Amino acid sequence: MNYLGNEIAMYPVCSSNVSEVGYDSQSETVLIHFLNNTLYAYRGVNETVFEELKSAPSIGSYLNRNFKNVYPYERIE
Predict the structure, then answer these.
(1) pTM above 0.85, yes or no
(2) Cα separation of the two ends of the chain
(3) I want to staple 76 with a disulfide (CB 3.0 to 4.6 A). Which of 36, 37, 39, 44 is the partner?
(4) How do the domains of the chain map onto residue ranges?
(5) Residue 39: CA atoms inside 13 Å, Cβ hemisphere, count?
(6) In this predicted model, what pLDDT tens digit does every residue of 6-24 receive, in sequence order?
(7) pLDDT at residue number 2
(8) How remote is the C-alpha of 26 from its chain's centroid?
(9) 3 band by pLDDT with thresholds 50, 70 and 90
(10) Does residue 57 sit in helix, strand or coil?
């Protein structure tokens, strides 16, 4: 996926709400592609937090606890 001129690898995840996630280390941006076909970008996220997200037993719960109201975000699509 291309974001801000950078090609970002997206990783499929097993979730009832999220289809895939990606990370751009240059801008420290996490991309979250939801099953409803919306795409959000969360900024200022370090790579360790992204790796924890990818390996979380529940991606949705991890997002709610560690991303929402923590990192600035915007809807891309």
Answers:
(1) yes
(2) 12
(3) 39
(4) 2-75
(5) 13
(6) 789 999 999 999 999 999 9
(7) 79
(8) 15
(9) confident
(10) coil
